[in-house]
Amino acid sequence: MTATRLGRSLSLLSGLSSARNDESYRLLLENHERAVLCATLPGGEICDANLTTLKLTGYSRPELCAFALSDLISSDTQDDLLQNLSALEPGVTRDFADVTLRTHADETVQLSVRAARAGEPEELLMLFLAPHVQAEDEPEGAVAGESGRALHSLAALIALLQTPSSDALADAVPLCRVFLGADDVALYSATVQPGFTLLAAAPKGGFPNPVQATDAAVGPALFEWRAGTPAASVLSRMARDRGHEMLLAHPLGDRVGCSGVLVALYQAGNQAALRGPARMEVAARTLTVFMDLHGQLQAAHAHSLHEQKVERRWRALLQVTGDGVITVNADGKIGRINAPVERLLGYQQSEIAEMPLRDVLVAAQPVASAVLAALRKGEAYGRDDISLVGRDGLEKHVRLRAVPVRGHEPGKAGGLITISDHTERKAIEKKAQHLEQRAFLGDLSAIFAHEIRNPLNGITTGLQYLQMQLEAEDGLQESVESILDEATRISRLLQDILLIVKPKELVIEAADLGAGVKALAGRWRERLHSRGIKLDVETDESTPLALADADQMEQVFTNLLSNAMHAMDAAGGMVTVTVQPALPRLERRGEHVQINIADSGPGMPPDVKEQVFNPFYTTKQEGTGLGLAISQRIVNAHRGTLSVESTPTIGTVFTVVLPAAPSGVNA
What does the alpha-carbon distance between residue 481 and residue 479 come to, in Å, rounded to a whole number? Predict the structure, then answer.
């Protein structure tokens, strides 16, 4: 055998031999025109053979695989050949002539052998067997060159299976043309509507497009047309008009349906036409696999794009929703959380992933186990009021819902858990309940004050009459005077209670609070000075008029000044009153007036500050605890706010904010 004969074929097969179970290897091996025998070293045990070898030897593949090379090679050439094969270096090919092979019929065949040895991990030896038969009508070199080109094109076509893209599909058509030895090749693909559209042609142009599904060339098997026969197909008429000698059309696909058609045209005198029908089967099978893989790749790409789109929407939904969302797998481990869960429970996504759900949903009663039990049964779970403990140890009142999400594995389901934070709602409900209780107590207090005030007036009148009847030096005068003082104090307390529960009707008008505060300060300055307290009033000239009941606001400022005076110790201090425009805020509409009354007293601790506006709460021995409560009630009725800021050892500031009168309105 000459050095050029099958040399490239041998290198291609030896490169694929490391994966003999691979479909590409089997396809190339079985359709090789020469006998191929595979054996392992050093014993020469036969491990594989193609169909041509089976026909040559008369053995079946299992029978051959039970032999060694020494069982097939005649004894007169056996020793030298086996020794030379064992000494063959990996990656090197060598030719052997006049090798005698014994067949199943106990006959001998003279062969030329080309051998190649693969490297590690398997010492594989591949033998190409060629009988000494020379074609009468074709020189050996021409056969070898055409066969080599066909084999190379088939190997390249098989290699394209690794990347079945649209571009590779276009490259496959020229390779099919070389493999088939055809003058023109075209590839058609099935369309949604019955019929076929032209995907690619080599060379381009001249092929009809589209081809109907009912065309005579489209069928379940190979279609063959030769010049001089009726042209019943649009393809055969095209071949006839272009002067071709033969047309072959082979369907692509399987028994279920036809996915395309491979068409080959041969001019007169093209010797490859003799091998065309046999090679069309190989090319069609290869292209069928290619197009199936291409379809699967396109479907996988579309699925990937869809998953990416769903993932983007899922991420966006997680970010915009106000509820917390937790995903959990079938093993009860957390997959993902969103920002509301991070804020609610105090965990970050990076640290909570793969954590058991029971370590995150911590509650007085084991809620995580109940959620997972429901999800494993494929059931939804929900509770409207659960107290979860966050990472900071604080309780959070939430509503929890969980729904199962089926996975790819049967019988296993993860879940989606939503958490709605009801902590603020609970606080509002608690505050509303507290207000209802206060309203009830207010009504009760009003009834109580009304029922007591009339008898108390009678008692006071009687005591005053008794005092008038007694002599001035009578020892009972002092006792009667003390009882009258207590009765007066009780009457004033009842009046304050009625002011809280049933305030006076407001007379709202534009009022100059700066002037009113200055007048009030003039009346209080001497009293404060006697206690060592300095009073300073600062008024911003740009302050607008306020919408207020001047008399009732004077009562508010009186209460606040009294509160500041009593907050000072014997060493005295400083009280500062400022009247100015309020800074704009989102929650306020229009202009507002702000009045600050600050003292340099000892300040209030946080627990006192929280209760300072509660009725009957006081830190003074003689106080009633109603002054600040009445003041807040009056300010709220003005649609304003009364707030306090206090720092222990530094002092306290009460701030009143009232709506300003429209511009142009005079006091």
Answer: 5
Burial class of residue 323 (count of CB atoms within 10 Å of its CB; 0-12, 13-18, 19+): middle
Q: Which of 18-32, 152-166, 276-290, 621-635 has the lowest mean pLDDT?
A: 18-32
Cβ-based neighbours of 461, under 8 Å, separated by 6 or more? none
DSSP code, position 350:
H
Contact indicator for 150, 132 with CB cutoff of 8 Å: no
Taking the C-alpha atoms of residue 220 and residue 217, their distance in angstroms, rounded to an integer, is 10
* Cross-strand bridge partners of residue 386: 398
Q: How far is CA 391 from CA 339, 349, 352, in A?
A: 15, 14, 12
Tell me which residue of 565, 559, 563, 549 sits closest to 516, measured CA to CA: 549
Q: Which of 28-42, 343-357, 471-485 has the highest mean pLDDT?
A: 343-357
Q: Which helix (H) or strand (E) holds 282?
A: helix 276-320
pLDDT at residue 143, as a whole number: 45
CA distances in angstroms from 331 to 175, 224, 357, 382, 416, listed in the order given: 52, 61, 9, 20, 13
What is the C-alpha separation between 232 and 216, in angstroms, rounded?
6
Q: How, if at all, do strands 573-581 and 533-539 pair?
A: parallel
CA distance 249 to 182: 12
Q: What is the residue whose two structure tokens read 């008024």?
A: 539
- Dist CA 38 CA 54 (whole Å): 12
CB 237 within 8 A of CB 214: no
CA dist., res. 123 & res. 117, Å (int): 7
Compute the distance between CA of residue 352 and CA of residue 391 in angstroms, rounded to an integer.
12
Decide: 540 and 546 in contact? Cβ < 8 Å: no
Write out the two tokens for 343.
């804020």
Domains and CATH numbers, the chain: 7-133 (3.30.450.20), 155-298 (3.30.450.40), 321-421 (3.30.450.20), 427-501 (1.10.287), 509-659 (3.30.565.10)
The listed range with the strongest mean pLDDT (549-558, 608-617, 626-635) is 549-558
Looking at 388-422, list the stretches that DSSP marks H as alpha helix, in order from N- to C-terminal side: none
Residue 555 to residues 517, 526, 550, 559: CA-CA distances in angstroms?
11, 19, 9, 6
The residues near 309 (Cβ < 8 Å, ≥ 6 apart) are none
The token pair at 421 is 């934070």
Q: Which of 463, 516, 518 is nearest to 485 (CA)?
A: 463
The chain-wide mean pLDDT, for the chain, equals 80
> How close are the terminal C-alpha atoms of the chain, in Å?
124
Alpha helices of 121-253 — where are they, by DSSP H?
140-159, 166-180, 234-241
Identify the DSSP state of 638.
Answer: T
Report CA 130 to chain centroid distance, whole Å.
63
Type of residue found at 23: E
User: What's the token pair of residue 240?
Assistant: 């006839």
CA-CA-CA-CA torsion sign (12, 91, 108, 4): positive
Would you tell me the crossing angle of helices 7-16 and 23-30 to the nearest 10 degrees?
150
Separation of alpha carbons 312 and 318, rounded Å:
10
Digit-coded pLDDT (tens) for 51-86? 888 888 899 989 999 998 888 887 666 667 777 877
- Token reading at 645: 């800021």
Q: Look up residue 509 and give its DSSP letter.
A: E
Report the distance separating Cα 486 and Cα 480, nearest Å. Answer: 10
Binning pLDDT at 50, 70 and 90, where does residue 229 land? very high
For 224-242, give one letter per residue: b (16+ CB within 10 A) or e: bbeeeeebebbbbebbbee
Give the chain's length.
667
